[in-house]
């Protein structure tokens, strides 16, 4: 199995998380690809690439697509150190906290609960409002 994580490379927080994810020991292969990039569009022509700038997106080599809490869980699930945690977060009642837990696992402890509130998508408010121009509309 191979997972592709589409992240907003114009967002500092997204770049920090993707760098952390790229440096982890993985149980499945992980490709990190900037969302809406030429590479992403060539690899996944059927995706709504505007939405991938608004919401983290993970795609498997079998074509499965995860967004929102499920995508954050899949990012953690791919790592050797955080698979058990990811399986725990996959429960419906815990999905709303998956993003915050993923950021904490990545050592992004300065991320406040307010920054983790989303505006129209799964990226933090300051990212969705400034990094993803399509998030507003």
What is the total tally of β strands?
4
Arithmetic mean of pLDDT: 84
- Structural class of the helices, strands and pairings? alpha+beta
Rounded to the nearest angstrom, the distance between the terminal CA atoms is 35 Å
The total of helices stands at 7
- Unreliable stretches (pLDDT < 50, length at least 5) are 111-120, 128-137
Shape: globular
Percentage of residues in DSSP E strands: 5-15%
What fraction, in percent, of the residue positions are helical? Answer: 25-40%
Strand order of the largest sheet: 2-1-3-4
Q: Order of SSEs, N→C?
A: EHEHHEEHHHH
| Number of structurally distinct domains | 1
**Main beta sheet: strand number and arrangement?**
4 strands, mixed
Please give the radius of gyration in angstroms. Answer: 14 Å
Describe the structure concisely:
The chain has 137 residues and is of the alpha+beta class. It has seven helices and four strands, in the order βαβααββαααα. It has a four-stranded mixed sheet, with helices on one face.
Q: How would you describe the overall organization of this protein?
A:
The chain has seven helices and four strands; from the N terminus they run E-H-E-H-H-E-E-H-H-H-H. With 137 residues, it is α+β, with helices and mostly antiparallel strands. The chain has a four-stranded mixed β-sheet, with helices on one face. Helix 4 (68-77) packs antiparallel against helix 5 (83-89) and helix 4 runs parallel beside helix 6. The radius of gyration is 14 Å and the shape is globular. Residues 111-120 and 128-137 have low confidence and may be disordered.
């Amino acid at each position: 199995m191979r997972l592709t994580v589409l992240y907003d490379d114009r967002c500092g927080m997204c770049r920090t998380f993707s760098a952390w994810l790229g440096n982890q020991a993985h149980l499945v292969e992980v490709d990190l690809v900037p969302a809406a990039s030429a590479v992403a569009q060539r690899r996944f022509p059927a995706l709504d690439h505007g939405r991938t700038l608004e919401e983290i997106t993970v795609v498997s080599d079998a074509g499965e697509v995860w967004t929102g809490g499920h995508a954050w869980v899949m990012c953690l699930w791919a790592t050797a150190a955080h698979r058990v945690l990811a399986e725990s977060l996959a429960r419906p009642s815990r999905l709303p906290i998956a993003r915050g837990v993923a950021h904490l696992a990545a050592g992004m402890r300065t991320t406040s609960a307010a920054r983790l509130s989303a505006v129209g998508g799964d990226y933090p408010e300051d990212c969705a409002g400034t990094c993803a121009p399509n998030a507003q509309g």
